[in-house]
């Protein structure tokens, strides 16, 4: 057995938040280059659509969905859609967060705590066990 295969992204489902921003876009492209299928989520749907189109044109598989990471109902509904379609999420790139320039405490709490934790933890329950086994 080739041990390096455990690091392969071939056929894996990669879920990227903030996917139309600088880092999210780059991550989406990079996962696609390594054979993953990409779910691009952002509050900016047209932006995510543009990235998905670019990735698909390059021959990989990508889909875009509108999702506000601070809205638990929306997170749950989007994750449910993805699990319905692919059966799992292998990689979570929990990228949305506060930038230094707007480090107001309420916004920091909303994005950095509720947003990140909301995507990665109990708010996805029961999907966290199914969708994100690696981050239990
Ligand atoms: N760019 C850098 O050099 C750098 C360096 C260190 C850390 N970071 C951190 O990495 C993260 C991403 O940085 P970036 O440069 O790609 O930012 P960006 O502003 O280019 O992209 C952020 C994306 O997140 C989306 N977004 C914002 N709020 C959202 C929400 N509530 N729900 C869903 N999507 C939302 C925006 O629409 C945008 O597409 C930030 O937390 C940033 O602080 C960036």
Beta-strand proportion: 5-15%
CATH class: Alpha Beta
DSSP summary: helix tally: 5
How would you classify the helix and strand content by structural class?
Answer: alpha/beta
Mean pLDDT over the full residue set: 82
**Sheet bearing the most strands, described?**
4 strands, parallel
User: What is the total domain count?
Assistant: 1
Query: Which architecture would the CATH scheme give at its second level?
Result: 3-Layer(aba) Sandwich
Strands of the biggest beta sheet: in what spatial order?
3-2-1-4
Query: H/E series, N to C?
Result: EHEHEHEHH
Distance between the termini: 27 Å
The CATH superfamily is known as NAD(P)-binding Rossmann-like Domain
Q: What does the radius of gyration come to?
A: 15 Å
Helix content: 40-55%
Number of strands: 4
Pick out the low-confidence regions.
Answer: 122-136
Task: State the CATH topology.
Answer: Rossmann fold
Q: Which ligands appear in the coordinates?
A: nicotinamide-adenine-dinucleotide
Which shape, going by the Cα principal axes?
Answer: globular
């Amino acid at each position: 057995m080739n041990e390096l295969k455990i690091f392969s992204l071939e056929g894996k489902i990669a879920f990227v938040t903030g996917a139309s921003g600088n880092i999210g876009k780059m991550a989406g492209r990079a996962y696609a280059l390594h054979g993953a299928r990409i779910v691009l989520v952002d509050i900016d749907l047209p932006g995510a659509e543009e990235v998905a189109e670019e990735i698909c044109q390059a021959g990989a598989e990508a889909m875009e969905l509108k999702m506000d990471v601070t809205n638990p109902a929306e997170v749950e509904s989007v994750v449910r859609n993805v699990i319905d379609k692919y059966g799992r999420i292998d990689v979570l790139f929990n990228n949305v967060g506060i930038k230094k320039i707007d480090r107001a405490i309420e916004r920091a709490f909303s994005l950095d705590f509720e947003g990140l934790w909301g995507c990665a933890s109990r708010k996805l329950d029961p999907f966290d066990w199914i969708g994100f086994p690696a981050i239990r």
